[in-house]
């Protein structure tokens, strides 16, 4: 993964520009109204004017509600996010459904703050079979959309879909940390949650022309704290279901640059897999460095399809 990416300025979730002309006119308007109205009415008018549009003004109220949604805020485009609708935003009782009683851990790859914490994320951690960097910055599209932003957004969308089926969903991080977590902690979160399934969400940074998605399955490894003997089989089942559902919901093809067209790759060098004691896979949803793939990865509508494929794959694996 690249370390020299210059991330874009963060997108703002709030859109206040429609208010600006109105506020700019406010003093003159207030003075004019005060001069024309009887004294008692002028006070009321001034109060209304100076307190801004009331709650009946649909756009600001809607924008505030939508911005309160984590999924919407991650998008930077509140109205474009179909997940976590405002009515469902408060922490309500979990839905009852086919996944009630099951725990899913979604691991959003990287962290948008990692690039500012090179020393911390370069620190070597023990992955059982080896030592490896705590975390990496991840990649970006050529226009600067960060993999870490993509992965967290898809994780939010998948969480909403899985919670609607009754699952308890744990994220390894939710954008609340300045960097990380380290890969060993990411694995530990899944283990300690006794997750029934863990999916790490990523997008690749290969050269242009390399297209499509692939799912990474744990190899059988043993060394130190790493012993994947028990998870290799169920993780393959999870990964195959993820790949087939992802292809169906997104219309994407398996990667054309590895995996021999199966969309499945086995790796023994990823700490997040080696240290997992729960069924776990990574999904690389596309190649951020290919413009055609990037057009999909930057589309909120496509990300919803990606999240649907991930949630459907997990649901199938869990028998829901
Ligand atoms: Zn990644």
Describe the protein's topology.
Blueprint: H1 20-36, H2 39-50, H3 58-67, H4 70-75, E1 103-108, H5 118-122, E2 124-126, E3 131-133, H6 147-164, E4 168-171, H7 183-192, E5 197-204, E6 214-218, E7 222-223, E8 226-227, H8 232-250, E9 264-267, H9 271-274, E10 280-287, H10 291-297, H11 300-317
Parallel strand pairs: 1-4, 1-5, 5-10, 6-9
Antiparallel strand pairs: 2-3, 6-10, 7-8
Helix pairs in contact: 1-2, 6-11, 8-11
Describe it for me?
- There is one protein chain.
- This protein is of the alpha/beta class.
- The chain has a domain at 103-317: Zn-dependent exopeptidases (Aminopeptidase), CATH 3.40.630.40.
- It is 39% helix and 14% strand.
- The chain contains eleven helices and ten strands.
- The strands form three sheets. The chain has a six-stranded mixed sheet with strand order 4-1-5-10-6-9, with helices on both faces. A two-stranded antiparallel ribbon has the order 2-3. Strands 7-8 form a two-stranded antiparallel ribbon.
- Strand 2 (124-126) and strand 3 (131-133) form a beta hairpin.
- Helix 1 (20-36) packs antiparallel against helix 2 (39-50).
- The protein is globular, with a radius of gyration of 23 Å.
- Mean pLDDT is 80; it is low at 1-89.
- The structure holds zinc ion.
- Zinc ion (ZN) binds next to loops.
